[in-house]
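Every protein is a chain of amino acids, and every chain bends into a shape of its own. The fold becomes a row of whole numbers, each drawn from a learned catalogue of backbone shapes. The protein below has been through that process, and both of its lines are reproduced in full.
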Amino acid sequence: MPSAATVRREIELSLEARFPAALSPVARTVREVVSTGVEAADRILDGGLPVGAISEIVGPASSGRTSLAISFLAQRTAEGRVCAWVDVEDALDPESAAANGVDLKKFLWVRCRPEEPGLEQSAPRFRRDAKTRPIWTRLDQALRATDLLLQAGEFAAIVLDLADTAPEHGCRIPLATWFRFRQAADRTRCSLVLLGRAAFAQSSAAVALECGTLRAQAEGGTVLRGFSTQLSRQKQRFAPGFGGEKKGPASTWSARVAWNPDAEKRA
């Protein structure tokens, strides 16, 4: 009677053409990473956010997630690379982005708006009015726009801003959508960064970074100077490397460090 290892090997060989190594776990891959522009974040990410993969930055409002994403795009546009921001709730301030180093000449801002007053995120994913004209919610517009930008293949980084999207709506995004985005990002070498209150991409994300506000910093007791933000690496599914350099597997522990966004900007 053949052993379990022999039976497994026979099954893998029979499925090899369709599903390579069907029963074997996927090995960690070595990916290129790009600096976020924030030393504290780069330190716990072993260099920065990955190229050709999905990264999630989650946290509550005013936790530093948007500042971190803008800092990352500033690094990319400074290299002459084109980047995009898909804004579900039309909340981005481009003047603030420019003040923090983003080159607006290399920056595409996609603003999602309802086609009729009162159309909310909780509306049906797709419906038609009396004239049979399709109407899409802001969330659907954002997902379709992100898909088109990824397929275009000309963007070094794309931020999908779901920060103001209710978690119950974000969690309803099909996993197949995130899988398709992951495949497209890998093929086009684009860094797709998701901002949200919770992690939505699940297993399709290569990196998950959680932000949390520690305290507000005031000057003279009356002037608000900024916030201290706590960064926590929740997941990292690859071993960073540059130019094919081999490194050991990424740590699975959760590193925490205090980050002051205003201090980074002044530096």
About this structure: The chain has one domain: 29-266. Residues 29-266 form a domain with the Rossmann fold fold (CATH 3.40.50.300). The longest helix spans residues 138-152.
